[in-house]
Design goal:
- It contains 11 helices and 13 strands.
- It is an alpha/beta fold.
- The protein has one domain: UDP-N-acetylmuramoyl-L-alanine:D-glutamate ligase.
- The strands form 2 sheets. It has a 9-stranded mixed sheet, sandwiched between helices.
- The longest helix has 16 residues.
- The chain binds adenosine-5'-triphosphate and magnesium ion.
- The site of adenosine-5'-triphosphate has 22 residues, from helix 9 and helix 10.
């Protein structure tokens, strides 16, 4: 396997995939509508946070997985740590704050699919990350780091991520990047330069929508892919919502996977589950086609369940889903 020119990511045996960032609970309004200005029914708390969803799916797929994050000393924290632990994520570098509560997001869908949020992240434990002894011990044995664009919203997560990338790359590890960015965010402060520097360090990029063009600075697909390969990116997996996904490797290898036909109950977390499965599969040595199929299945299965990580699947569950579910032609 080691001589395979499309083997982009460090093998699972080098050490776990780690991600750094927000761990939250999500509390979802039971009925669609606008905002939260009158009493309504909610369901939750569900474990959430883009990095947490990603790493949970990575572990469920069978990849070695760990997270650097922080929760409060409260039940919302336990909801997350128990789930991540149950699913096989190394939680040794999740700090428990006695001063700040676990981060939270209240969400309500509108009839047109758009969402209203009330967040408590910036003033929660989720924003209080520190490079502790436990973080040091974890990072020095990780084989891969997955970076979420949401890291730009947290100075503490950004500082840890930058240092962790250097440590992991120095020991032969690799890096993947899910831009998870909106154009409006990029123009904030130094985000544009930081983002460009991060793209240049990425071995694997996992964009959706306009993120491919934002990363490349080019606004058509094939030229954007070429530009990114010239910047050192080795592999790009493009997420296309209900239409599935495509992957391109700079060796010239590429693959397409049509979307699975499912009834969408809750679209939150699809991209994160796709990424968690794709990265795990590639690090376990699977070819691009197979990783893409698992990524698609993870994203599609997750949208069929209410709650952002409730549909993350084990390898057996995803194999079963692939066998039973029709695809768009
Ligand atoms: P997010 O909204 O979580 O940021 P994203 O934009 O990063 O998501 P998507 O393209 O929405 O990523 O979803 C990731 C993958 O999940 C898709 O490539 C697809 O395979 C699958 N998926 C998402 N939504 C659907 C759907 N409605 N039907 C079938 N598959 C879906
Ligand atoms: Mg996304």
């Amino acid at each position: 396997m080691t001589n395979d020119p499309t083997q982009t990511l460090a093998p699972d045996s080098l050490g776990p995939t780690v991600t750094v960032g927000e761990i939250l609970v999500e509390i979802v309004a039971s009925k669609a509508g606008a905002g939260f200005r009158e009493p309504i029914e909610f369901i939750g708390p569900f474990p959430s946070g883009a990095p947490a969803i990603f790493i949970d799916q990575c572990a469920r797929m069978g990849g070695a997985a760990a997270i650097v994050g922080a929760v409060g000393d409260d039940d919302f924290g336990v909801v997350n740590t128990e789930r991540l632990k149950r699913d096989g994520v190394d939680i040794s570098a999740i700090a428990v704050s006695s001063d700040f509560p676990t981060g939270s997001a209240f969400v309500r869908y509108r009839k047109d699919g758009s969402r209203d949020f009330v967040y408590n992240i910036a003033k929660s434990a989720a924003a209080r990350l520190e490079w502790t002894r436990e973080v040091e011990a974890l990072i020095t044995r990780c084989g891969h780091i997955h970076v979420m664009g949401t890291v730009f919203a947290s100075p503490a997560a950004w500082a840890i991520t930058e240092h962790a990338i250097a440590v992991i790359k120095a020991r032969g590890g690799t890096m993947s990047l899910d831009p998870n960015l909106r154009k409006e965010l990029l123009t904030h402060g130094q985000t544009e330069e930081k983002f460009a520097a991060l793209v240049d360090k990425a071995d694997l990029l996992l964009p959706s929508g306009e993120e491919l063009f934002l990363a490349a600075g080019v606004d058509t697909e094939q030229p954007a892919i070429k530009a990114l390969f010239n910047h050192g990116v080795k592999e790009i997996a493009i997420k296309r919502g209900k239409d599935g996904s495509s992957a391109y490797h700079r060796s010239g290898a590429h693959a397409q996977c049509p979307g699975f036909l499912v009834d969408e109950t809750d679209p939150t977390g699809a991209g994160d589950c796709f990424g968690g499965a794709y990265v795990a599969c590639r690090r376990l040595g699977m070819p691009i086609e197979r990783a893409l199929e698992f990524g698609n299945a993870a994203g599609a299965r997750n949208v069929t369940r209410l709650g952002p990580m409730e549909g993350a699947g084990t390898r057996a569950e995803l194999e079963d889903f692939i066998a039973r579910t029709a695809r768009r032609s």
